[in-house]
């Protein structure tokens, strides 16, 4: 399946693109997606234990993952995932 | 604490000084609170806001210009020509501090002049200057000429407040501008200055602001500053400006698009703070003494939207004039923002009014307006043809509105009057006549209550409940879940923000602080040694109730409601698809009244008593 990832703020500056499409296995979760993001993005978004590093946030189709199943949230074809370096207004 | 007011009588071109009593200051603090109190005492009920009986209060607060943190702002209060109730607005830049340095903590503009005039205040000395040559001119030119006349070319010294042609021509959506690009935009108070024929005020001086305990002030100031600088939002605001919100609010489907008919805009990224920083940003800038420095300095080098180096655009302006009208070209928005500033418009109201106009134009063509009205509108719009997303039509319309030419005469009246005139009142998205800002309450449901109960009309700055519904300050909530604790937080923010606007601080402090953070520093400045945090918050509540009483006294503007579109039409897209604001408002409002001690929008007599508002008890329920 394919999902779109939108990078905000400094992550946009690192990646150089606002939106990038990623190809994933059909059963992939948010955790699987985050693992394949560019290293510099991962440094900002993930902590040592693989959790979300404060104050970064991730949302799937406009819903913060903490209101879904967290890192275990299952992704579906066509989903839009927003990754933001700050806990800033991402639902 | 001594608070020195300057009363400027424009009828006689005379000024006199007045020192306010410490007791009044402690009850109403300064800025917005003091303005509400003075307006209630001095502006007679039921007057026409565009008459010499109306007054404009330009006020600082006890912390303004003290050099601490985000203390560079000022507040304006008066009876609003747009809403017919108490209006007020806040602006940054450097006018507030320089007003205090010039010798006064506030100005009351009274009476009306027969001919255009501008006023200079330099080290306590007040002079009146004929302004015939400045009348009809833009804000940028006006500031340049006044600075030349005052021999103060450096923009770091002194400050100019001015109105543009919009205010002169009594547009109800005109903004009071200062330092060229900063706006006390909301509620159309520039039209009152236009009626009074006051074009501008120049301030400069070297008065030192006295403090009860300087050492303590510096210690407290450092503590607050540290909190603000450590907060992740402060850093984001500095880097990307307020437009950092574009992608975020759009991501969560609460970015009002096409006159509030959708919650997401497909070109959001192209008008975002990230894109602005990459393409058109020259540098960032701060209001006087600010460390966050969220203001943008931008320019467009070439093409039809070429714009000189100037400040902006802010999130609200980008949204109102962009997504809401489907204009997705940031170059065009920088140009529109420049024109709106120079002609002196409130960009939120202007953008909404243009979106209303585009909707009316579409309806007229489809035969969805009363026949005679459709014909009149199509005749008036023949040479503008404001299709959705057309920046050139918008540019033409701004000029017309500023000089009330043709359709401009109706655009200048704001969205509500425009939509009503053409027989489609629900095409204007407003509360109490004030056009709404850039958060759709169908996607952030606490905003339903914040907007409905906002005393000055549709506004995000009485309670910025986006902060807890989305950001998690002070607690994290799901913005789509109905939760009555949100009501408690909306009320708290309304009271706390009343304090912030009365101390006259920037609201970007409030992500990192709460009301308890300001007790010690206020003591250090004022010498109110027995001040408590509770007393401060109650002052905020007092101010909120007093503002509501102004509407009660006018006999309108105290009913709490939302526009029909937000209550009846579900969002068709995004994460909040299918949602309206109806359930949230109906659930939250009764509990809100219970917490406030109000009945159907009117404070109870016992509430007024509890808040020390006995002198207005006759207005209570
Ligand atoms: S944070 Fe922005 S608006 Fe607030 S005082 Fe600083 S520059 Fe002005």
Which class do the helix and strand fractions of chain A yield?
Answer: alpha+beta
Q: Strand sequence of the main sheet of chain A, in spatial order? A: 2-1-5-3-4
Give the low-confidence spans of chain A. none
The largest sheet of chain A is: 5 strands, mixed
Give average pLDDT of chain B, whole number: 96
* Rg of chain A, alpha carbons: 12 Å
Uncertain runs of chain B are none
Strand content of chain A: 15-25%
- CATH class category of the largest domain in chain B: Alpha Beta
Structural domain count of chain A = 1
Biggest interface found: A-B, 23 and 32 residues
> What would CATH call the homologous superfamily of the largest domain in chain B?
Aldehyde ferredoxin oxidoreductase, N-terminal domain
Rg of chain B: 23 Å
* Portion in beta strands of chain B: 5-15%
Annotated CATH architecture of the largest domain in chain B: 4-Layer Sandwich
Shape of chain B: globular
Quick take:
The complex is a heterodimer of chains A (91) and B (621). Chain A has 91 residues and is α+β, with helices and mostly antiparallel strands.
Describe what you observe in this structure:
- The complex is a heterodimer of chains A (91) and B (621).
- With 91 residues, chain A is an alpha+beta fold.
- Chain A has 3 helices and 5 strands; from the N terminus they run βαβααβββ.
- The model of chain A has no long low-confidence stretch (mean pLDDT 92).
- Chain A has helices spanning 10-15, 30-35, 39-45; strands spanning 2-7, 19-23, 57-60, 63-64, 80-84.
- Chain B folds into 3 domains: 3-204, Aldehyde ferredoxin oxidoreductase, N-terminal domain (Aldehyde Ferredoxin Oxidoreductase,  A, domain 1), CATH 3.60.9.10; 238-431, Orthogonal Bundle (Aldehyde Ferredoxin Oxidoreductase Protein, subunit A, domain 2); 441-511 and 532-619, Aldehyde Ferredoxin Oxidoreductase Protein, subunit A, domain 3.
- In chain B, 40% of the residues lie in helices and 14% in strands.
- Chain B has 25 helices and 19 strands.
- Chain B has a 6-stranded mixed sheet.
- Classes of the chains: A alpha+beta (91), B alpha+beta (621).
- At the A-B interface, α1 of A face α8, α9, α10 and α19 of B.
- The structure holds iron/sulfur cluster (SF4).
- The site of iron/sulfur cluster has 13 residues of chain B, from loops.
- Iron/sulfur cluster (SF4) binds next to loops of chain B.
């Amino acid at each position: 399946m394919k999902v779109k990832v939108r990078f905000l703020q400094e992550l946009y500056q690192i990646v150089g693109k606002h939106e990038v499409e990623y190809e994933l296995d059909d059963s992939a979760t948010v955790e699987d997606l985050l693992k394949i993001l560019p290293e510099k993005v991962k440094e900002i978004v993930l902590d040592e234990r693989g959790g979300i590093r404060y104050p970064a946030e991730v949302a799937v189709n406009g819903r913060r993952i903490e209101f879904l199943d967290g890192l275990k949230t299952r992704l579906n074809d066509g989903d839009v995932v927003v990754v933001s370096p700050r806990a800033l207004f991402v639902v | 604490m001594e608070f020195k007011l300057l009363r400027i009588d424009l009828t006689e071109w005379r000024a006199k000084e007045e020192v306010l009593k410490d007791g009044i200051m402690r009850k109403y603090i300064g800025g917005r609170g003091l303005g509400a109190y003075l307006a209630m005492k001095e502006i007679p009920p039921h007057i026409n806001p565009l008459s010499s009986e109306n007054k404009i209060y330009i006020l600082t607060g006890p912390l303004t210009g003290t050099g601490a943190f985000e203390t560079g702002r000022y507040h304006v209060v008066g009876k609003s020509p747009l809403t017919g109730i108490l209006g007020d607005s806040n602006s940054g830049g450097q006018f507030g501090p320089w007003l205090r340095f010039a010798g006064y903590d506030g100005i009351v503009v009274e009476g009306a002049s027969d001919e255009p005039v501008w006023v200079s205040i330099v080290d306590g000395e007040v002079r009146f200057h004929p302004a015939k040559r400045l009348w009809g001119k833009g804000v940028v030119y006006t500031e340049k000429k006044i600075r030349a006349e005052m021999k103060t070319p450096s923009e770091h010294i002194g400050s100019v407040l001015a109105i543009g042609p919009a205010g002169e021509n009594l547009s109800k959506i005109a903004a009071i501008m200062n330092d060229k690009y900063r706006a006390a935009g909301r509620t159309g108070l520039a039209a009152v200055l236009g009626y009074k024929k006051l074009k501008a005020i120049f301030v400069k001086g070297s008065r030192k602001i006295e403090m009860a305990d300087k050492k303590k002030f510096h210690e407290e100031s450092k503590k607050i500053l540290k909190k603000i600088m450590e907060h992740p939002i402060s850093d984001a605001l500095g880097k990307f400006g307020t437009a950092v919100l574009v992608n975020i609010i759009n991501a969560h489907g609460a970015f009002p698009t096409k006159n509030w008919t959708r919650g997401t805009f497909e070109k959001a990224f192209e008008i975002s703070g990230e894109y602005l920083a990459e393409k058109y940003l020259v540098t960032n800038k701060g209001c006087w003494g600010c460390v966050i420095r969220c203001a943008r300095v931008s320019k467009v080098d070439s093409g039809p939207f070429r714009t000189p180096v100037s400040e902006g655009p802010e999130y609200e302006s980008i949204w109102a004039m962009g997504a809401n009208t489907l204009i997705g070209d940031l170059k065009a928005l920088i140009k529109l923002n420049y024109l709106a500033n120079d002609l002196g418009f409130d960009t939120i109201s202007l953008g909404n009014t243009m979106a209303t106009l585009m909707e009316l134009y579409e309806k007229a063509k489809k035969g969805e307006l009363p026949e005679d009205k459709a014909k009149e509108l199509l005749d008036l719009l023949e040479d503008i043809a404001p299709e959705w997303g057309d920046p050139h039509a918008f540019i033409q319309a701004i000029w017309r509105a500023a000089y009330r030419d043709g359709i401009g005469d109706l655009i200048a009246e704001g969205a509500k009057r425009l939509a009503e005139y053409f027989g489609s009142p629900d095409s204007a998205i407003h509360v109490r006549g004030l056009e709404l800002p850039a958060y759709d309450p169908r996607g952030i449901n606490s905003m339903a209550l914040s907007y409905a109960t906002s005393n000055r009309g549709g506004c995000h700055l009485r309670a910025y409940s986006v902060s807890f519904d989305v950001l998690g300050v002070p607690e994290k909530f799901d913005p789509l879940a109905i939760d009555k604790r949100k009501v408690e937080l909306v009320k708290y923010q309304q009271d706390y923000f009343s304090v912030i606007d009365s101390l006259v601080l920037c609201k970007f402090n409030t992500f990192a602080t709460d009301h308890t953070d300001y007790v010690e520093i206020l003591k250090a400045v004022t010498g109110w040694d027995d001040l408590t945090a509770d007393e401060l918050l109650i002052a905020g509540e007092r101010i909120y109730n007093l503002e509501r009483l102004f509407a009660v006294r006018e006999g309108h503007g105290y009913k709490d409601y939302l526009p029909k579109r937000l209550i009846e039409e579900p969002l068709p897209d995004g994460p909040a698809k299918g949602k309206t604001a109806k359930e949230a408002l109906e659930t939250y409002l009764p509990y809100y009244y219970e917490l406030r001690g109000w009945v159907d929008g009117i404070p109870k007599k016992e509430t007024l008593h509890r808040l020390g508002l006995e002198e207005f008890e006759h207005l209570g329920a």
